């Protein structure tokens, strides 16, 4: 990855993209092809990098891993000569040209900002969660991969407020779905789950263990159950703090409020991908990126050759 040299850093960017997941990289690709001066600042912790294989990316009938997708997009950016900075933006403030962003060892002025920081999932108690994700035993997105869980024994972990809807969705793929409720479900949730044939187990102290190609849920001081795949539904941290610090409007969960051009309530600040929606899909991120990049290009002074 390349950063901004001293000469170029003294010139304002047309756009700074914060976050190097599918949304941020797609926005940077579009902006570079618009011949805009763009830089990506990324800490290298994209949630997409954990995907063992996605089958929802068009054109890849047999799927591809998240790391391969990011590598392909990064190579495309390199060919376009887009500057990359391996760091985390620590401060975002109004600047002489729009905004001033700062990170360890550097800063830049920019006319526009694309915030593509995404989310960080809350994980169940499980030391081996990374390897379980890599092996397809622990999964976070049934919209993405429930098709691969057809007829398997499925566990869903979390408070019913988050987990009930996910369990009901997965019931369309398997007859064997269990909700491991970390909080007591109310009567309405219990009725809906029971009507769909989803088993409910109260498991406030639940922990996961690896058992070969399965996961074991241990709870209630000695009870346990094994599953082919487990879906946590425990919420997430929305990484919108930089935008919120500028006064951007947001939901109670921290998702940024945006208009149909991906513009936040702060002029020049755009939000895309998981930081604006709980529909955490690569295709959604791509769409957001294209819309935001086109809006940014149209908002800037026309480039003439």
TrEMBL record:
Task: Please provide the record's keywords in A-Z order.
Answer: Flavoprotein, Oxidoreductase
Protein species of origin: Bradyrhizobium sp. LLZ17
InterPro entries listed in its UniProt record: FAD/NAD-bd_sf, FAD/NAD-binding_dom, Ferredoxin-NADP_redctase_2
GO MF entry, a single one: oxidoreductase activity
What SUPFAM superfamilies does UniProt report for this protein, alphabetically? FAD/NAD(P)-binding domain
Q: What is the organism lineage in this UniProt record?
A: Bacteria, Pseudomonadati, Pseudomonadota, Alphaproteobacteria, Hyphomicrobiales
- Tell me where in this chain the FAD/NAD(P)-binding domain is found: 14-289
UniProt entry tagged with the keyword Cell membrane: no
Q: What is this protein called?
A: Thioredoxin reductase
Enumerate the PANTHER family for this protein.
THIOREDOXIN REDUCTASE 1-RELATED-RELATED
């Amino acid at each position: 990855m390349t950063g901004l040299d001293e000469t170029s850093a003294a010139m304002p960017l047309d756009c700074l993209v914060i976050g190097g997941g599918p949304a941020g990289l797609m926005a940077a690709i579009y902006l570079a092809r618009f011949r805009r001066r763009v830089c990506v600042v990324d800490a290298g912790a994209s949630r997409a990098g954990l995907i063992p294989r996605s089958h929802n990316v068009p054109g890849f009938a047999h799927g591809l891993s998240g790391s391969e997708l990011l590598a392909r997009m990064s190579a495309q950016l390199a060919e376009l000569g887009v500057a990359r900075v391996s760091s985390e933006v620590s401060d975002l403030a109004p600047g002489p040209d729009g905004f001033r962003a700062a990170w360890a060892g550097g800063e830049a002025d920019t006319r526009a900002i694309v915030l593509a920081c995404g989310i960080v999932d809350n994980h169940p108690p499980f030391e081996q969660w990374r390897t379980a994700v890599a092996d397809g035993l622990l999964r976070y997105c049934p919209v993405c991969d429930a098709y691969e869980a057809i007829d398997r024994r499925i566990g869903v972990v979390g408070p019913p407020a988050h987990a009930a809807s996910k369990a009901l969705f997965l019931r369309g793929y398997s007859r064997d779905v269990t909700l491991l409720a970390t909080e007591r479900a109310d009567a309405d949730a219990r009725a809906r789950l029971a009507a769909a044939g989803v088993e409910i187990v109260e498991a406030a102290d639940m922990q996961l263990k690896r058992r070969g190609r399965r996961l074991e849920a241990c709870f209630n001081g000695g009870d346990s159950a094994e599953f082919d795949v487990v879906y946590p539904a425990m919420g997430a941290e929305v990484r919108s703090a930089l935008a919120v610090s500028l006064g951007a409007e947001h939901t109670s969960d921290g998702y940024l409020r945006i208009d149909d051009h991906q513009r936040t309530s702060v002029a020049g600040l755009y939000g895309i991908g998981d930081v604006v929606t709980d529909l955490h899909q690569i295709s959604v991120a791509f769409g957001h990126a294209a819309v935001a990049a086109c809006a940014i290009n149209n908002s800037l002074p026309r480039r003439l050759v």
